[in-house]
């Protein structure tokens, strides 16, 4: 009886330790997967920037906010990676933008938003897009960073081959005959993998359907990921909040 009680206690300790590590890794990963949303609000009449507008994202009750500057530009920082609608208010009217995707350590760009309201429904006109702006940011920062979202991965015919997906993200990434990845001619084993904030030797067995975001750094690697002669692959899996956010975005698109 005594040994049975001790065995139960040890099992509970082990379970609580594993649970604590899991929760810690989830908290850490949520803290890592952050990006920003940028854009410019202009007047529909003369297309000049509108200062002083309140801009925010509502993520299941948690708000991320900003105010447009003198040129109508705004930047919402520390936003968890994912897809969102952005709301803009001038204290009288409120409009909702098109949805925007926020990558890890990157920018979701709404381009130029014309503040134009309707008597029947909320709406905006958005000019531009994120592709050109992301390329500009890439050139300015000289940080070779490549990102795949869950939506991108879903469309790939090679989505069940993790190494192949990583290899197509950059011409600097090569897949060897034995399936390993190397960066810019570096030796095997010199690349770093992070899965939900945990450093691993490899992530090839991660199911593609569970990935929310995958980022590959081939240079200008952020200090938080350590030092390496190779590259860094950072994978964030979908959490309950990511799935809930996806569901609400899809429902809102259907209603619109």
Primary descriptors:
single chain; alpha+beta; Ferric Hydroxamate Uptake Protein, Chain A, domain 1; five-stranded mixed beta sheet; four-stranded mixed beta sheet; 5 helices; elongated
Q: Secondary-structure blueprint of this entry?
A:
Layout: H1 2-32, E1 34-42, E2 54-59, E3 62-67, E4 73-80, E5 82-84, E6 87-89, E7 94-96, E8 100-102, E9 107-114, E10 125-127, H2 130-141, E11 145-149, H3 150-155, H4 162-168, E12 173-175, E13 181-183, E14 192-195, E15 198-200, E16 211-217, E17 232-237, H5 240-255
Parallel strand pairs: 1-9, 14-17
Antiparallel strand pairs: 1-4, 2-3, 2-6, 5-8, 6-7, 9-10, 11-16, 12-13, 14-15, 16-17
Plain-language structure description:
The protein is of the alpha+beta class. It has 2 domains: 32-141, Immunoglobulin-like, CATH 2.60.40; 145-241, TonB-dependent receptor, plug domain (Ferric Hydroxamate Uptake Protein, Chain A, domain 1, Beta Complex), CATH 2.170.130. The protein is built from 5 helices and 17 strands. It has helices at residues 2-32, 130-141, 150-155, 162-168, 240-255, and strands spanning 34-42, 54-59, 62-67, 73-80, 82-84, 87-89, 94-96, 100-102, 107-114, 125-127, 145-149, 173-175, 181-183, 192-195, 198-200, 211-217, 232-237. Strands 11-16-17-14-15 form a 5-stranded mixed β-sheet. Strand 6 (87-89) and strand 7 form a beta hairpin. The longest helix is centred in the first third of the chain and has 31 residues, at 2-32. The protein is elongated.
